[in-house]
Write a structure and sequence with these properties.
Elements: H1 4-12, H2 22-30, E1 39-42, E2 51-54, E3 64-65, H3 67-70, H4 90-100, E4 103-104, E5 108-109, E6 120-124, E7 133-136, E8 142-145, E9 148-151, E10 154-157, E11 160-163, E12 172-175, E13 184-190, E14 196-202, E15 208-211, E16 214-215, H5 218-227, H6 233-249, E17 252-253, E18 257-258, E19 261-269, E20 272-281, E21 284-294, E22 297-303, E23 307-308, E24 311-318, E25 325-334, E26 337-340, E27 343-346, E28 349-352, E29 355-358, E30 361-364, E31 367-368, H7 371-387, E32 390-391, E33 397-398, H8 417-421, H9 426-431, E34 448-449, E35 469-470, E36 477-478, H10 482-490, H11 500-508, E37 517-520, E38 527-530, E39 543-544, H12 546-553
Parallel strand pairs: 3-4, 5-6, 6-7, 8-10, 9-11, 11-12, 12-13, 13-14, 14-15, 17-39, 18-19, 19-20, 20-21, 21-22, 21-23, 22-24, 24-25, 25-26, 25-27, 26-28, 27-29, 28-30, 34-35
Antiparallel strand pairs: 1-2, 15-16, 30-31, 32-33, 35-36, 37-38
Amino acid sequence: MIEPEDFKFYEKIKVPPPTWCPECRLIRRLVWRNEHSLFKRPNAEEGKKDLIISVFHPDAKVKTYDKEMWWSDRWDSSSHGRDYDFSKPFFEQFANLIEEVPHLALSDSKSVNSRFCNVSVELKNCYLITAAWNCEDSLYCNRVSRCKFIQDSYICYDMEFGYENVYCRDSSRLFFSLESEGCLDSYFLYDCRNCSDCVLCTNLRNKNYCIENIQYTKEEYLKKKDALALDTRHGIEEARNKFKKLWQEALHRDVKLINTTNVVGDHVYNSRNCYNVFDLDGEFQNVKYANWGSQGCSDAYDVGPGSGGNSELTYEGISIGVYNSRCFLGAIIWYSRDIYYSFMMNNCQDCFGCTEMNRKKYCILNKQYTKEEYENLLPKIKQHMLDMPYVDKEGKIYKFGEFFPSELSPFAYNETVAQDYFPISEKIAEEKGYLWREYISGSYKVTIKGKDLPQTISEVDDSILNEVIECEVTGRPFKIIEQELNFYRRFDLPLPSVHPDERHNRRLKLRNPMRLNRRSCFLCKKEIDTTYRSESEGGPKKVICSECYKKEIY
C-alpha cells in the first residue's frame, strides 16, 4: 500500500510510484548483486592472457579488468559511449552497453593489501570479505564494518579478535556467538550484554564466570571450561549442538530496535522515522524499505543492501550508500550525485544509463555531453522510456521508474544474494525466468579430507598450507592460508573442516527472514510483529514483546 507521504517522496525525486510490491522490488535488486560467488575468467586487458578472479561467471557476456587496470588511466570507459537510440527501449541499449564496457572484476575501493574482496571500501590486510567497510586483518566475513582481526562473521560492527559471530558488536575475543554486545573472552553466547568469561549462556547482563547461565567462581569456571574442550573440533561441535538447544529455550525479543523512534523493522540502531527496514546501523532517518547499511542515511526508499554511508535522497539502488546524493535506480554507486540507471560509478555526477565510470559527469550511455546538451536530452529520454517501455520474456513492463529487468543481470539467480535471502530451486528459477548456473569445481587434487583434520591446532604444522582439503559437507576443495592459520594458533581454535561458502551458509541460517510476521507474545499473549518464524517452521517458542522482554531480562 502506498501512503500519502510516499507520493510526496516520489514527487520530490521526480519518479512515478512503483508498480511492484516491496518484497518483489527487493528481489529484483538482489538479482543484480553478487557478493561472494567468485570465478576465474579471462582478463580483457589488451595483450593479457591471464585469468583473474571475478564475480562474473566465465559464461557471462561481459568483459572484465583487474583492479589495477580498472583504476588506472590506461583506459577510458567513455570510449565505449554511444548515441541514444530513440527507436529502441532504453534497457535494450543499456544491456548492450554493459556487455561491451569492461567491468571491475571485484568492486573494491580505497583498500590496501586486500585480496578477493568485493563491494568493499577502505579495507586493509583483508582476505575474502565482502560487503565490508573500514576493516583490517579480517577474513571470510560478510557485511561487517569497523572490525579488526575477525574471521567467519556476519553482520558485525566494531569487533576485534572474533570468530564465527552473527549480529554481534562492540566485543573482543568473542567466539561462536549470536546477537551479543559488549562481551569479552566468551564462547557461544546469545543475547548477552557486557559479559566476560562466559560460555553457553543466553539472556545474561553484566555477568562473568558463567556456564549455561550458572554462576561459578573463577577457579570453578576455568575448570569446567577446560572440560568442554573448546580447543578441539569435537568439543566445538558438541558445544554447537548444545547451543542450538539453549537458543531454542531462550527468551527472544520480538524485534531489535535500539535507541529508535517511530521505526518498524528489525536490527535497527539509533534511527528514526523508518518503515520496513532491516539491519541498519545508526543515523537513518525518513527511510523506507531499506536493508543492510551503516554510517547514516536520510530520505531514501528501496535501498540496500549497501545503503547508508552518509547518503541522502536515494531510491531503488543496491550499494549506492557511500556519500551519495540524488542517486536513483542503480547499482554500486559511490561518492556521486545525480545519477540514474547506472552500474559501477565512482566520483561521478549527472550521468544517465552509464557503466564503469570514474570521475565523469554529463554522460549518457557513457557518451560525453556538455552540461546544456545533457540537460536538454535527459527529459526526452525519460519520456521515451514511458512511451516505449521494455517488455521482458515474462511480459513484465519496465518504464521509467522501474529498476533494471532481472533477465538482463549478468549474474545467475543462484550466484547472487537473492538466493541467500529468498532461496528457490532451479526449477522455480526457470519458471520465473531467472538464469541459473550450476557450480563446477576446478580440477584440484584433494590431499586430505576435512573429517580427517587434526582435532587441535597444536597438532598442525605449516605443511597444512600446502594441503587441499575436502569439505566434509559439500565435498568442495578449499585451502588454509597463512594469515588464517596464525589466527587459529593465536586463539587455540581447531581448523575448520568445511568450505568457507558452507560456513557462510551456516551463518545465514542463524538470521531471521527480512519479513515481519504476526504472532502472540509468549508471556502476555499480546499481538506482536516479529521476524521470527513460527514454531512449525522451526522458530523459537518464547518470542515475547518488548515490554515483557524488559521486565524479564533487566
